[in-house]
């Protein structure tokens, strides 16, 4: 029996690492999601058997995914992927929730997959294989609504989710946000320093004097002249941006390279 599996993590290198480790299990079929929104869409549409769920993600985190997915008629089995300290891990163990501690190891993953096989093998249709998760969710208050960015669109102010942003750029002294739906001036942000104060940290990184990129939207990068790098994004136009030499170290560190 194939185990339809979804890997949920906002960091592409972490998703790639887990997906690679899972190739040693022939019964595991993997898909990936980089945001809570993508994860919930795939869970609703594809009905995976198993979800490897990162807890710490920007905006809506793993607990938000867990809370919504658990309301579905036939929820998947969840395994936490976490960098939490040992105290938090003991809390997960107490609630009989399996977990993988970053950095991942093939030996620990094998134990987790065996547990999953046992649970799924004895699962009755429509039964909840992890009722203990209700206790864990009940002990954790719902997170605050995800902050959103205000942009100017057709003479009106509109709110957009950070996860929908591909990159920001400075155009004629105005900050423009580029999304899959188009490009819009930011409202209330005058400089890139203001922008960094608002969105600094994962998954956003300032890559030069005039651009801040969503690292989850970088699909390719390659060395260029003068120690710079050329970045190619995964938007419709495969936008190319320049990573300045002074930002290369931060870029590689953020990608775990």
UniProtKB/TrEMBL annotation:
<dbReference type="GO" id="GO:0000976">
    <property type="term" value="F:transcription cis-regulatory region binding"/>
</dbReference>
<dbReference type="InterPro" id="IPR039420">
    <property type="entry name" value="WalR-like"/>
</dbReference>
<dbReference type="InterPro" id="IPR001789">
    <property type="entry name" value="Sig_transdc_resp-reg_receiver"/>
</dbReference>
<feature type="domain" description="Response regulatory">
    <location>
        <begin position="4"/>
        <end position="117"/>
    </location>
</feature>
<dbReference type="GO" id="GO:0032993">
    <property type="term" value="C:protein-DNA complex"/>
</dbReference>
<dbReference type="InterPro" id="IPR011006">
    <property type="entry name" value="CheY-like_superfamily"/>
</dbReference>
<feature type="domain" description="HTH LytTR-type">
    <location>
        <begin position="149"/>
        <end position="257"/>
    </location>
</feature>
<dbReference type="Pfam" id="PF00072">
    <property type="entry name" value="Response_reg"/>
</dbReference>
<dbReference type="GO" id="GO:0006355">
    <property type="term" value="P:regulation of DNA-templated transcription"/>
</dbReference>
<dbReference type="GO" id="GO:0000156">
    <property type="term" value="F:phosphorelay response regulator activity"/>
</dbReference>
<protein>
    <submittedName>
        <fullName>Response regulator</fullName>
    </submittedName>
</protein>
<dbReference type="InterPro" id="IPR007492">
    <property type="entry name" value="LytTR_DNA-bd_dom"/>
</dbReference>
<keyword id="KW-0597">Phosphoprotein</keyword>
<feature type="modified residue" description="4-aspartylphosphate">
    <location>
        <position position="54"/>
    </location>
</feature>
<keyword id="KW-0238">DNA-binding</keyword>
<dbReference type="Pfam" id="PF04397">
    <property type="entry name" value="LytTR"/>
</dbReference>
<dbReference type="GO" id="GO:0005829">
    <property type="term" value="C:cytosol"/>
</dbReference>
């Amino acid at each position: 029996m194939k185990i339809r599996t979804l890997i949920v993590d906002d960091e592409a290198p972490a998703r790639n690492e887990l997906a690679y480790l899972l190739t040693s299990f022939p019964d595991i079929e993997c898909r990936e999601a980089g945001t809570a929104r993508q994860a919930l869409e795939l869970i609703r549409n594809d009905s995976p058997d198993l979800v490897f769920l990162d807890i710490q993600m920007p905006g809506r985190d793993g607990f938000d995914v867990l809370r919504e997915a658990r309301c579905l008629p036939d929820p998947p089995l969840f395994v936490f992927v976490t960098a939490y300290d040992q105290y938090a891990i003991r809390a997960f163990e107490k609630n009989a929730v399996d977990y993988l501690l970053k950095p991942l190891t093939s030996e620990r993953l094998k134990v987790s997959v065996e547990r999953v096989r046992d649970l799924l093998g004895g699962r009755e249709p429509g039964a909840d294989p992890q009722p203990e998760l209700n206790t864990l969710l009940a002990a954790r208050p719902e997170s605050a609504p995800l902050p959103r960015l205000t942009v100017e669109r057709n003479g009106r102010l509109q709110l957009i989710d950070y996860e929908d942003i591909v990159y920001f750029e400075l155009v004629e002294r105005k900050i423009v946000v580029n999304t899959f739906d188009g490009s819009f001036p930011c409202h209330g942000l005058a400089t890139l320093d203001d922008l960094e104060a608002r969105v600094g940290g994962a998954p956003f990184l300032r890559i030069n004097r005039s651009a801040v990129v969503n690292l989850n939207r970088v699909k390719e990068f390659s060395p260029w002249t003068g120690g710079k790098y050329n970045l190619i994004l995964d938007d419709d136009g495969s936008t190319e941006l320049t990573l300045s030499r002074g930002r290369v170290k931060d870029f590689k560190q953020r990608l775990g390279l």
